[in-house]
Amino acid sequence: MNILLINLPFIFEKKSDIILSHCLGIFQIASFLRENNCKVSVLDALQEGIDKSKKYKNNYYRVGLSDEEIIAKISPDTDLIGISIPFSHLAKLAHELIAQIKAKYSSIPIAIGGVYPSSQPELAVTSNADFIILGEGEEPMLELVNYLLKRTEKLPDSIIQRNSDLKKIKNHFTKDINRFPLPARDLVVFNKYLARSPRNVRGWKSASIITSKGCPFDCEFCAVHPVCGYKWRPFSTQRVLEEINYLVDNYHVNNIEIEDDNFTINQQRVEEILNGIIEINKNKQYLSWQALNGLRIDTLNEDLIKLFKESNCRHLNIALEHGDADMLNIIQKKLNLEKVLEVVGLLKKYEIASHVFTIYGYPGETKERFVNALNFYSKIKKIAPNIVFKFFIAQPYPNTRLFHRCVRDGYLPHDLFSDVSKISNFSTANKIWITTPDFDKAEIMRRRKILRKTLFTPKEYLMQVVREKLPDVIVDKLYSFYHKLAKGKVNAI
């Protein structure tokens, strides 16, 4: 069977936000299907059209190949098309592309998967896609292949169609992820991905990896569980190091970006992986690594942070979420603030460059709780003056418990994301969706200004203002100039 997997064009708020996806989900599905005797090709419409941007609705930018260019690359002998929709705000774009593909190739079945269909199947079934895959896609895609080849007569509950009973659906989570071969990066010219990472790291040959799936924690705002589930499932140490060595040997990668939600949940396993990276540095070439998805602070200790340093950790992000204890309880982020200060001190001691993720404008954030958080953040800055804060306005991801609580309490309309046109406006950056008796939009903007003036260096504050106030063309030139200066430096970002 000939299978084409498509990574969509992406939508960005600013040209300076443009990044590449390293398509880990698509490459992992591709390798598993190929191992099971399927002929697989990958069309990455974002990477192939990374220099093609045009204005999209509400002044966003659509980056990637046009729908016409994508369709022109589809071979008529394709037996199945799989489309990844990793973000909900890409839903409208995906629906439009699917409709156009069907207009030309009505007989080719199309399957969609990713965050959007997994979290909003009731919207996904309104597309012209023939099959909607819920949860992790590797095993369901193979089951779909067997169904289309008439090797099986029934689809699992994790694969639905337009006429499916949505009350019976069940998202799929693979029990043993170690059965999967390495991601099939060889299906594209992967060297083109290395200079621009998913986190916009420049000046290095950077590649992303995932070393585990699933999250056993239960933060109210998080949208990960429909896609990866609650059970934490790690790749073995051997499998992780095999992938890292493959990237070093075949692509001369010198920086690894670890995308896990829970990389440090098992200390022994992390130590084994990092000791493996130390061996690579002894025997091959310089290799650094970063943890960029927000590590759980209470999984860190001095032994581990010391090993971070020894294994060339360039940078890590830690997920604090809020500096007020009451707010952490509301968010359902189980975290002791004294532990936070301890870990920050260790990061300072071992000179690990770090960012702290925090949220503001979250329901329940009274002025008093905001001030408590601000004071706590100031304590962090006193301990580690070089630590960088990343402040995010609370976002009601569709179908999360935060979203449903906001609807219940009257902070959001129940139909906010009821169709793909509405959800295409969703942003995870600066959009203010939620207002409560404790804050309106003006108050959120006031709090943002206070956070920045209190905790940003003058340079950081200026860069934020520049990005938000100047026209895109000027911002693009400034960023281009900055990256040219940084290129080739050991600490270039």
SS-based class: alpha/beta
Largest sheet: 6 strands, mixed
Query: Which geometry do the CA atoms define?
Result: globular
Give the termini separation: 42 Å
Helix fraction bin: 25-40%
Low-pLDDT stretches are: 486-493
CATH class placement of the largest domain: Alpha Beta
Q: What does the secondary structure layout of this molecule look like, with pairings?
A:
Layout: E1 2-7, E2 10-12, H1 24-35, E3 39-44, H2 45-48, E4 53-55, E5 61-63, H3 67-72, E6 80-84, H4 91-104, E7 110-113, H5 115-119, H6 121-124, E8 131-133, H7 138-148, E9 159-160, E10 206-209, E11 212-213, H8 225-228, E12 233-234, H9 237-251, E13 255-258, H10 267-283, E14 288-295, H11 302-310, E15 313-321, H12 325-331, H13 337-349, E16 354-360, H14 367-383, E17 388-393, H15 401-408, H16 420-423, H17 441-455, H18 458-469, H19 472-486
Parallel strand pairs: 1-3, 1-6, 6-7, 7-8, 10-13, 13-14, 14-15, 15-16, 16-17
Antiparallel strand pairs: 2-5, 4-5, 8-9, 11-12
Helix pairs in contact: 1-7, 9-10, 10-11, 14-17
Descriptive notes:
The structure is a single chain. With 493 residues, the chain is α/β, with parallel strands linked by helices. It has two domains: 2-168, 3-Layer(aba) Sandwich (Rossmann fold), CATH 3.40.50.280; 194-394 and 434-456, tm_1862 like domain (pyruvate-formate lyase- activating enzyme), CATH 3.80.30. Helix content is 39%, strand content 16%. The protein contains 19 helices and 17 strands. It has helices spanning 24-35, 45-48, 67-72, 91-104, 115-119, 121-124, 138-148, 225-228, 237-251, 267-283, 302-310, 325-331, 337-349, 367-383, 401-408, 420-423, 441-455, 458-469, 472-486, and strands at 2-7, 10-12, 39-44, 53-55, 61-63, 80-84, 110-113, 131-133, 159-160, 206-209, 212-213, 233-234, 255-258, 288-295, 313-321, 354-360, 388-393. A six-stranded mixed beta sheet has the order 3-1-6-7-8-9. The chain has a six-stranded parallel beta sheet with strand order 10-13-14-15-16-17. The protein has a three-stranded antiparallel beta sheet with strand order 2-5-4, with no helix packed on it. A hairpin with a 5-residue loop joins strand 4 (53-55) and strand 5 (61-63). The two termini are 42 Å apart. The relative contact order is 0.09. Residues 486-493 have low confidence and may be disordered.
